[in-house]
């Protein structure tokens, strides 16, 4: 603890003892002057893909970022995730077109390419959710290319939130598009309203070979060594299905087992 934080703590204690509100204590730093992101304690390097793998697929914006992101999928991912990531992009891209809003197509592809990178051992941390591992990887990748911080934050949010319901509709559109693209490809959400001819074309180009079985196993492989990171998320259902005698924590029990006691009236 720094001297400054010790001072703040003492001041807070004094204010409470005097009956004053701690809210009157002046903050030494406010949020807008601090970095918008805190880097992970352990940084897993994102390598540069070999040049022979750096070829954007037809229909994907052809830029240095998309070529390298595609190269990473080619070199370090699997055919399952390569096809899945591309389908997610094309679903999300069409959904973005339907909104009539402007969106960052290049960044959307990069997000689709990285969104499941955290399932791979090369990019998987010991303690973070796989979504966060992928988000940290994309941040490192984009920082290496000197992409502006605000744009990087959109990508980080999109990947870290791509399995979290109820939030993305209040984030930049790329965050919501990635979420909806993943939802369509994995769960079939929006299947009936998506253009039939385009859906068939995309699946023909990026087949769903044994996808339902294999993607579930890919999820399990991505967090079997850190099942605690799935608690409170949809990924916990994978653990409960595959892992014998899997037991999740219980939020209600945690409330009642808190060491705090109820105050006496």
From TrEMBL:
Comp. bias intervals (Polar residues): 1-12
CDD domains, per the entry: HDc
Coiled-coil residue windows: none
Pfam annotation, one family: HD
Domain HD positions: 82-169
Region (Disordered): 1-23
InterPro entries assigned: HD/PDEase_dom, HD_domain
Protein name: HD domain-containing protein
């Amino acid at each position: 603890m720094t001297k400054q934080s010790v001072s703040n703590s003492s001041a807070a204690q004094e204010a409470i003892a005097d009956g004053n509100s701690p809210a009157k204590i002046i903050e030494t730093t406010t949020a807008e002057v601090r970095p918008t992101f805190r880097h992970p304690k352990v940084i897993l390097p994102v390598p540069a893909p070999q040049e022979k793998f750096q070829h954007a697929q037809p229909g994907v914006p052809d830029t240095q970022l998309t070529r390298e992101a595609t190269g990473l999928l080619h070199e370090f991912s699997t055919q399952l995730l390569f096809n899945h990531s591309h389908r997610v992009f094309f679903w999300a891209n069409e959904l973005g077109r339907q909104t009539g809003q402007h969106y960052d197509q290049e960044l959307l592809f990069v997000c689709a390419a990285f969104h499941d990178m955290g399932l791979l051992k090369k990019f998987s941390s010991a303690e973070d959710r796989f979504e966060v591992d992928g988000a940290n990887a994309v941040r490192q990748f984009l920082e290496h290319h000197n992409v502006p911080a605000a744009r990087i934050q959109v990508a980080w949010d999109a990947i870290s939130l791509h399995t979290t319901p109820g939030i993305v509709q209040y984030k930049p559109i790329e965050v919501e598009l990635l979420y909806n693209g993943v939802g369509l490809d994995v769960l079939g959400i929006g299947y009936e309203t998506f253009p039939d001819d385009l859906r068939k074309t995309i699946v023909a180009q990026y087949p769903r070979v044994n996808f339902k079985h294999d993607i579930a196993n890919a999820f399990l492989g991505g967090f079997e060594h850190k099942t605690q990171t799935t608690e409170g998320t949809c990924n916990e259902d994978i653990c409960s299905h595959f892992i014998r005698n899997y037991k999740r924590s219980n939020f209600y029990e945690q409330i009642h087992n808190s060491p705090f006691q109820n105050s006496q009236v």
